[in-house]
Write a structure and sequence with these properties.
This protein is an alpha+beta fold. Helix content is 15%, strand content 50%. The strands form 2 sheets. The chain has a 16-stranded antiparallel beta barrel with strand order 1-4-5-6-7-8-9-10-11-12-13-14-15-16-17-19.
Length: 418
């Protein structure tokens, strides 16, 4: 799908080039960067910015890769109707090739005032921070709230979207429909080549209302998984189905190919240049075992004092579905009993290992010490349930987490625009 999106982008640019050869093209180059340090006190769990990373801080170690990144963007304005944008971002991620680093490459066509059509690779317009999630200078915290954004590692989709803006008695409404594909590998261990992969199509609608200091947002997305992410597990369970009645139901729960799940996101923000507050809530509805039904939310409030801003934040992520308990069948001849026990253990680990159940409170200070530069210091306290550690990686995968975990995460970032 990436190649199709890139081919579409290049093709459209190629078709437009002769007609626009004589146009006065306006070029704009810009960039952003963050140099970040983070330290996590927990000895058993590795802190990472989101689930796309396979390394991070634990036991007080100071890591710089989790939050550090650099991005460059080119915008070309060919005329009042057509613009093109390309954005590259270098950062720590499980796969850091050119395909993953190319975050945006799209053509924007504006047939009428207030209507935008985009084609190519573009930011996934699903969250409050969709347009600037990687630009640290643009948001107040050291990083987007971990409880909420730690799982949402979708930074772009390859596809198309159409937006319509309406001015209604001082309120600006933006309605956007989108459809595209996203394909990503997720590490399952610290500095390990082992990974899982999800290839899915996402389609949906978002509605944004902006008036004075207020912004409201709602997004609905339906996602269909295109790959058989748990194929070997499903085959193993199906093979036991004649002798293990529960196996067929477990196989159906674990299957991913052509299965759907839906996503709802509600966001609100207020900013009068002195006080600001922002909150966001999302809900996943799913019958897929490796995409559990879950809720996430955060709330943050802050106040600016000239160059300084003080803020507090809290967040919560919790599963709605119960933990899966697999009973090993009895009465099977050897060696099938041992095989069934191993398969039951793998099934439980696969279906429960994706759960996220944690909460946090934190506070921070931001210092805008120079034009387009900011320093931020942030301290957070996390509470992580035994059966909800998926945003973290275990330092030793052979040692199970048997007690509720706590972690203090201290972050220092330097954000720059250029």
């Amino acid at each position: 799908m990436f190649r199709l999106a890139l081919l579409s982008f290049v093709s459209v640019c190629g078709l437009l080039a002769p007609a626009l050869a004589c146009a006065n093209v306006e070029h704009r180059f810009s960039g952003f960067a963050t140099l970040g340090l983070v330290a996590n006190t927990n000895e058993a769990l590795v802190f990472r910015r989101d689930v796309s990373q396979d390394d991070g801080s634990y036991d007080g170690s100071i890591e710089w890769k989790n939050d550090s990144l650099i991005g460059a963007q080119w915008d070309g304005r060919w005329n009042h109707q057509i613009e093109t944008t390309v954005q590259l971002v270098a950062k720590e991620r499980f796969n850091s090739g050119i395909e993953e680093s190319l975050e945006w490459a799209f053509v924007r066509y504006r047939p009428f005032d207030g209507v935008d059509l985009r084609l190519g690779r573009m930011g996934a317009d699903i969250f409050m921070l969709s347009d600037y999630r990687q630009v640290g200078y643009a948001y107040p915290w050291a990083r987007p709230p971990h409880d909420f954004y730690g799982l949402l590692s979708i930074f772009h989709i390859d596809g198309v979207d159409l937006a319509k803006r309406i001015d209604l008695n001082g309120t600006t409404l933006t309605l956007r429909g989108f459809y595209g594909n996203h394909d990503q590998k997720f590490p399952v261990g610290v500095r390990s080549e082992a990974h899982s992969r999800l290839d899915f199509n996402a389609g949906g609608l978002s509605l944004i209302a902006e008036r004075d200091h207020w912004k409201l947002r709602y997004t609905y997305a339906d996602l269909k998984i295109n790959n058989d992410a748990t194929g070997s597990l499903v085959i193993g369970l199906d093979s036991f189905a004649p002798y293990w009645p529960e196996a067929a139901a477990l196989a159906d729960m674990a299957a991913t190919y052509k299965r759907h799940f839906s996503y709802h996101d509600f966001g609100i923000s207020y900013d009068n240049n002195t006080w600001w507050v922002q909150a966001e809530y999302s809900s996943v509805h799913s019958e897929i075992g490796v995409v559990p039904q879950s809720d996430r939310a955060y709330l943050s409030i802050g106040r600016r004092f000239d160059q300084f801003s003080l803020y507090a934040l809290t967040g919560r992520a919790t599963p709605r579905s119960r933990q899966v308990e697999v009973e090993v069948p009895t009465g099977l001849p050897d060696p099938w009993t041992a095989y069934a026990a191993q398969l039951a253990q793998i099934t439980e680990a696969s279906l429960n290992g994706v759960r996220i159940n944690q909460s946090s409170v934190g506070a921070g200070v931001r210092w805008d010490f120079a034009a387009k530069m900011a320093l931020k210091l942030q301290v957070e306290e996390f509470r992580i349930d035994v059966n909800g550690t998926n945003l973290w990686l275990r330092t030793d995968p052979r040692v199970p987490i048997t007690t509720r975990q706590q972690a203090r995460v201290t972050s220092l970032t330097w954000d720059i625009l250029f």
